[in-house]
Amino acid sequence: MTRVAHRICPLCEACCGLELMLDGDRVIEIRGHEADVSSGGFICPKGAALAELHEDPDRLRSPMVKRDGAFVEVTWDEAFAEIERRLPPILAEHGPNSVAMVIGNPAAHKAGLLLYGARLSRAIGTSNIYSASTLDQMPKQLAAGWMFGHWLSVPVPDIVRTELLVILGANPMASNGSMWTVPDFKGKAKALQARGGKIIVIDPRVTETARLADQHLSIRPGGDAFFLLGIVHTLFAEDLVKLGRLAEHMNGVDELRAAITDFPPERVAARCGIEAETIRSLARQLATTGRAALYGRIGTCTQEYGTLASWLVDAINALTGHLDEPGGAMFAKAAAFAANTAGASGRGKGITTGRRRSRVSGAPEVFGELPMTCLAEEIETPGDGQIKAAIIIAGNPVLSAPNGPRIAAAFDQLELVISFDIYLGETSQYADVILPAYSSLAESHYDVALSQLAWRNTARYSTAVVPAPMGHPAEWEMLVRLIGIVKGRGGDVDVTALDDELAADDLARTVGSAAQLVLSKVAPLRGPERLLELALRAGPYGDRFGMASVPPADGGVTLAKLAANPAGIDLGELAPRVPEILRTPSGKVELAPPPLIEDLARARADLDRAVPPLVIIGRRHLRSNNSWMHNLPTLAAGKFRGAAMVHPTDAARLGLTDGGRGRITRGERSIEVAIEVTSDIMPGVVSLPHGWGHGQPGTKLRVAAERPGANLNAILDDTLRDPLSGNAVLGGVAIDLAPL
Ligand SMILES: Nc1nc2c(c(=O)[nH]1)N[C@H]1C(S)=C(S)[C@@H](COP(=O)(O)OP(=O)(O)OC[C@H]3O[C@@H](n4cnc5c(=O)[nH]c(N)nc54)[C@H](O)[C@@H]3O)O[C@H]1N2
Ligand SMILES: Nc1nc2c(c(=O)[nH]1)N[C@H]1C(S)=C(S)[C@@H](COP(=O)(O)OP(=O)(O)OC[C@H]3O[C@@H](n4cnc5c(=O)[nH]c(N)nc54)[C@H](O)[C@@H]3O)O[C@H]1N2
Ligand code: SF4
Ligand SMILES: [Mo]
Question: Does any ligand 2 atom lie closer than 6 A to the CB of residue 203?
Fold first, then answer.
């Protein structure tokens, strides 16, 4: 019997609605769901490949325990018994900080992992929390936290109404958008151009997005903060600042003006590789276009001045009158889980960082985490607080974090590694116990985090498309069993009972004595569904359990309504939210947060840094997803996408040929790469994607092993980070390249 089912794609931030054709429980075809209120039928090749992921024979179907150096399949009870035997003694002897949590990217796309992973960290009580955030967007979150008062109050371009979109260090044609849920970026970009608007891309490479744009400017890797300072300087110098409606809601304009006087366009031009007049022209265009948005993403984050650059992007949006305005950079209003819709509106506690420091390097805690680049040294360095065990949740830092091989060696010396992973991969091979999820098609879905960064306000929920395999727990249930072990209740704890307790504890913290009453209103839901229903009803479109000052006419958004509408519920276009969204102590947008003004001294001292002859940067490809979708045949097919791009002048100088091979060296470490000679990359820069380096002996990724590629992160340094956010520097560092 063929049937049709719907599911939000869990693979990237675009969160497309998919339509699946099934024969029984076998997936025949996956296409875009035309009626989806957010994605309108868009799909990319990865979404279609979910069918192959579902079937992938290398995907683990049962838990694995390492015995005498080799993995054996065990039952779920055996797996948890193994953990119960080994984890509590470590905690008892060495304390909570001896157990590290290491959280990877797919956790952001899975409600069960996101909602229950945090509960496990809390149950353990560890300060050793590491995630892909410090390889990615922490600078953006920190800047937003300082400016707007919460870590996820990040504005996104209002692409459907803008006339000018300036994209800095992002390639949404490949990534499908990041910190910006924007399915079918291409369609929206073309519509922008069709209504007479313009797109400018600023990137060291002529990317797929640059090709679509009206203008491309090459920028020297790591030069973004300097370039943006030149723009801010111009805005003040040419009297182009117009704060508009937000004027009365902004603090720090004069402080900002005073702080940037050393950065006129002439002074920053060499550092960013963009001519002074071009910088001025861009500033003028941004200031004089009625509806314009500046958007910066991973290229602006994974560098030494990531937080400065992220701050300046939104400072420029504010100074040009485009922040929180239609067609500018606007804030989504998510239906559930958004801290910026909770509590009193307009003012709050703001954010705090540095509540503790990492033991070895003294890196400050940011958003509850320590930098991923501190993980290896915290495992290696003896003393009080040394990491003895790790729980890795959907992460592959051996390939995805700088100096990955050092992390591998560090994992190897731990007393216990527990891995939540669906493959025996480059990182999970170091585990003692692997707990694989079942296919995501067998689980329900809600975008806990990404709805907060969406191009339009919608609420969408997917029920499971196929039944879960018999006896195979959901990931949230695995996490509850781990919590049971940590709390001394055993790995065979009654999951339902403990889940009830966890929900009640949480509610007691937010609604106090009303907890039991509220819980009774969402009975008999449990697990992530219960948390979702609670969040939806307490959220800005919910009935607030009868406490809403203006009760929603239709009873408000509920889980039942979402479940009945697989295409989602449309909640309208982005609308201005300042001052309601603010949670800063001042109740204002902070344009000149003191730590950022101070950090300008570092940039000032660095203005005249010499240009290394050759630096490396990263890139993404539409048919790849960080380190882990290289095992799916249709995605892996075709031209190899892991080659190092080299400009013809560099190739000639270094004796490299297109299709040949080369060795990239940085310090003591080197990798061998395939060479692609192309004028798409700017001279003096090499582009190599991360996430490759498969085919390692202990792994089982047979398709990926056929074309392993090289691990960019094997040569990057775990000593380089943005001191404010702790984010790793993943680009712009000097390398040597020689033919093989
Ligand atoms: N040099 C360089 N390095 C980078 C980047 C860069 O631009 N340049 N980008 C960085 C960024 S932005 C990120 S987000 C990180 C990503 O790096 P990681 O956070 O390590 O994520 P992935 O590489 O995607 O690896 C995800 C792991 O989760 C597993 N997995 C997949 N689905 C599931 C599931 O449903 N459940 C479980 N339990 N496991 C699952 C996969 O098998 C894989 O082992 O890489 C970073 N590394
Ligand atoms: N197909 C696919 N989609 C993905 C992913 C994937 O691996 N594959 N990963 C997902 C994840 S985890 C994330 S975080 C997002 C990231 O999404 P994006 O931020 O769009 O990331 P990229 O596509 O890597 O684009 C970054 C661009 O920055 C440029 N760049 C490098 N260094 C600099 C610099 O110093 N300055 C400037 N201005 N530009 C620079 C690079 O040339 C590149 O074109 O993508 C997500 N979506
Ligand atoms: S763009 Fe992202 S969410 Fe959409 S189908 Fe592709 S992988 Fe899935
Ligand atoms: Mo990421």
Answer: yes
**Is 730's C-beta closer than 6 angstroms to any atom of ligand 2?**
no
Given ligand 1 and candidates 620, 628, 735, which is best to mutate, with the most ligand atoms within 8 Å of its CB? 628
H or E segment to which residue 156 belongs: strand 156-157
How far apart are the C-alpha atoms of 203 and 168, rounded to whole Å?
6
Of 737, 550, 734, 520, the closest CA to residue 646 belongs to 737
**All residues at 6 or more sequence positions from 211 whose CB lies less than 8 Å from its CB, including other chains:** 173
Question: Residue 221: CB within 6 Å of ligand 2?
Answer: yes
Residue type, 541: Y
State the pLDDT at residue 79.
98
Size (the chain), residues: 740
Closest listed ligand to the CA of 132: 1
Q: Are 664 and 686 in contact (CB under 8 A)?
A: yes
Structure tokens that stand for 156 in this block: 């996104």
Residues with beta carbon < 5 A to ion ligand 4?
Answer: 136
d(CA 169, ligand 2 centre) in Å: 7
Q: What are the mean pLDDT values of the chain's consecutive 10-residue runs (740 residues total)?
A: 95 98 95 98 97 96 96 98 98 97 97 96 97 98 98 98 98 97 98 98 98 98 98 98 96 98 97 97 98 98 98 98 98 96 93 96 97 98 97 98 98 98 98 97 96 98 96 98 97 96 92 89 94 95 87 91 97 97 97 98 94 95 95 93 96 97 96 97 97 95 95 97 98 96
- The whole-model pTM stands at 0.97
User: CA 685 → CA 478, 650, 679, distances in Å?
Assistant: 45, 9, 11
N-to-C CA span, the chain: 56
Are the beta carbons of 260 and 233 closer than 8 angstroms? yes
Q: Is 202 close to ligand 2, i.e. is its CB under 6 Å away?
A: yes
CA quadruple 410, 416, 421, 424: dihedral sign: positive
DSSP letters for 368-421: TB--GGGHHHHHHS-STT---EEEEES--HHHHSTTHHHHHHHHHTSSEEEEE-
Question: Ligand 4 centre from 105 Cα, in Å?
Answer: 6
For ligand 2, atom 3, name the residue with the nearest CA.
Answer: 175
Q: Please report, for the chain, the start and end positions of each structural domain, with discontinuous segments joined by +.
A: 61-126+388-445+464-493, 139-331+578-605, 495-565, 615-739
Amino acid at 219: I
CATH topology of domain 61-126+388-445+464-493: Rossmann fold (3.40.50)
Half-sphere exposure of 298 toward its Cβ, with a 13 Å CA cutoff? 24
Of all helices (H) and strands (E), which one includes residue 81?
helix 76-94
Backbone angles phi, psi at 314, to 5 degrees: -80, -25
Sign, CA dihedral 665-671-677-679, equals: negative
Q: How far is the CA of 113 from the centre of ligand 3 (A)?
A: 19
Ligand with the closest atom to the CA of 170:
2
**Residues whose CB falls within 8 Å of the CB of residue 382, separated by 6 or more in sequence, listed in order:** none
Task: Say which CATH architecture domain 139-331+578-605 belongs to.
Answer: 3-Layer(aba) Sandwich (3.40)
Distance between CA atoms of residues 345 and 715, nearest Å: 46
The three-state secondary structure class of 611 is coil
- Give dist(CA 471, CA 119) in Å, integer: 23
> What's the topology of domain 615-739?
Barwin-like endoglucanases (2.40.40)
3-class DSSP state of 21: strand
Radius of gyration of the chain (CA): 25
